[in-house]
Amino acid sequence: MKQYPVGPGSRFPFGVTTDAAGTNFSVWALGSTGAKLLLFEDAASPMPFQVVTLDPVENRTVPFWHVYVQGSPSGVLYAWKIDGPRNTRESGFRFDRHKALVDPRARAVSDLHWDRKRASGPGDNIDASIRGFVIRDDEYDWEGDRPLNRPPEHSVIYEMHVGGFTRHASSGVKHPGTFSGVIEKIPYLQLLGVTDIELMPVMAFDEQDVPKAAAARGLKNYWGYSPHSFFSPHPGYCVSAGQGGHVREFRDMVKALHRAGIGVILDVTFNHTAEGGDKGATINFKGFDNKNFYHLDSKDLRIYRDYTGCGNTINCNSPMVTTFLIDCLEYWVREMHVDGFRFDLASVLVRGFDGEPHPHAPMPWHIELSQVLGNTTLIAEAWDAGGLYQVGEFPGYRWTELNGRYRDVIRRFVRGDPGLTGEVATRLSGSSDLYEPNDRLPTNSINFVTCHDGFTLLDLVTYNAKHNEANGEDNRDGSDDNNSWNCGTEGKTDDPAIVGLRHRQVKNFMTLLLLSQGVPMIRSGDEVLGTQLGNNNAYCQDNTLSWFDWTSTESHTGMLRFVIKIIAFRRRHPCLTRKTFLTGKPRSGRLPDVTWHGRRLHEPLWEDRNSRILAYTLGGATDDEEDLHIMLNMSEEAVEMEVPAITALRWHRAIDTSQPPGSDIMDPPRQPQVE
Hints:
By secondary structure, the chain is an alpha/beta fold. The protein has 16 helices and 23 strands. Strands 11-12-15-16-17-18-19-20 form an eight-stranded parallel β-barrel. A hairpin with a 2-residue loop joins strand 2 and strand 3. Helix 10 packs across helix 11, helix 10 runs antiparallel to helix 14 and helix 14 packs parallel to helix 16.
């Protein structure tokens, strides 16, 4: 191919910038001594057609390497080689002049030739590396699209996996397992009634990053919590990944979802990368600036601090790293129009240079105060694998949190554990104990019962113990603390009594979730009784065990109907989506916003250690809204419970999970009167 002339280039802007005359390349590599830019003809090319050796005077502005390539066409791919000090106890750097590195800021990447083993061992891996595309902004026509900026109190979040949502043969889409496939299923999401989809990781990740036991079984990293290129959509979810169509295809999906009134929240992994620990792969960050990008042991800089359980931990509060990550988030909002982010193991974001929690950590506050991110949803998984647990205490006011305490107590309550009515009432009311003291709101609580990590909702009522043998680790992986109950038999059964009880329990969970103050999150597939056969850690199961089975929308129409109706019920009742905490005080001429009961009115059983019963009345939040009276009985026996008398009005039964499908939830015209 043609050899393109080169010039000094500029350190700003970071990454790759194209204009009519050529392309500017710029990377940060503190402490390095040499750099080479590798140019590849296309994604199929194993070797570069041009290698540009950068001059340490002309092409370097410490700590940047930069070069301008004149006339280079769009569609060319590129990688870097960086030289410098090797790994030592004192330096903290891991430069390796043999390893080809992908630009951390690449907008689209190709992993067509990727070989993790080659990147983890000694020697050159040019022909087995990940590369970035040189792409020009094609003036994409957003057709007036903008992020939706929906108020959180009106949100119902649906957690889903882009690949698994349409990869099953029953999906019937043209391009299974892609962003394009999601577009074809938008009518289903509209029918369900969810307002936002929370996508499990879609930033480019290493599918080869699995333990040896899983790899020996031909398994791969399915969930995607192994990122390496935070600016690039994952090539495995693209139809035209070989041509660098990543950005366009992702934008097409977002635009189509927005047209349907559905927001897009990205699950981001800013706590670790696919490079792993000391024996892990060199993909980019290790080879550019290992010393600053990762938390390293202060006495031996060869050792990675691991607060994630994945071999390394991103040093989020290092100034250059903070800048990189904030730039990344703002890019996804400004250029890709996403509506929010869910941060995996978010407590890593508050760890300072010494690894300890920083009382005024810059990273979460930069996110909180960014004007570009000012209207985005921010969800923190407010804990990490190093023992830091911050539910109710994550820094900032705008941050919402995955409420793990809600999940745990609701699971135990529905299972039938006694003596929980006081805490259950607090969780159903928006967890004021966690959020009100810090001037936060019920909407700071993301309520959930299940998510990708753990049992499905059906498995939660089908298994007492995990069954992860398919992962190849002798059932050692995954949590043993599930708060589940198998309803009397472990695993599948044809016993109609047990099957009926399980379905009723699933409806109980869904009802509590959608009646709670705060923001509900539903795991994809739970609405159609999806199962992973007791596997509570299906991170490596890119197969029918994890995929959404679309035949279930026909075989479990009763459950699907119930979930559709309960979401619509929530939407009809503003008293379930209040912006402020319940007070027990009445509005003029109306019932108090909440009144608590037990079997008898106004006699809640807060101190009864054997109680499994709770009832409460929610006064309508608007003049035309009906009041709600909610009765919860998680004991094994039927009990009589008093219902408040309302002058000149009658109660109607809206939801009764003991009733068969079709009668378990009723729209207002068909709701029978309660005598």
